[in-house]
């Protein structure tokens, strides 16, 4: 029983609320986040994807944001498809996905997609599990994801995904 208590108090996950006003979201991350940005090609259009990531407990927690050139539903769908297929391709797997609701910080919700799957990744083709939520809100497409070398406890996934709110 003492081992269970020690795990619950483990400093591995040092949760902190991150408010990203530039990208329009708030989320709890388990460590101090880093940032990255790259250009991606979605349906023949160059777009910037910003990433905010934190590593803890053999897992990477990340929120990616793609700024769309407008609010065209066709471009929004293309961006969602790009992110969904990219995640699946990274692990060589077909994700299980279903509709979900993503909360808004001001109240209410918007429809999103929830995915979970496992597959092999990296140069050593090591097993990874991935949980992700994808959503379009205005001119942004968001990808909140957790990738780990083993299934994380539900409370860690819940902390991350339930805290993810859009402005």
From TrEMBL:
| Highest taxon of the lineage | Bacteria
Q: What is this protein called?
A: Transmembrane protein
Q: Which organism is it from?
A: Paraburkholderia saeva
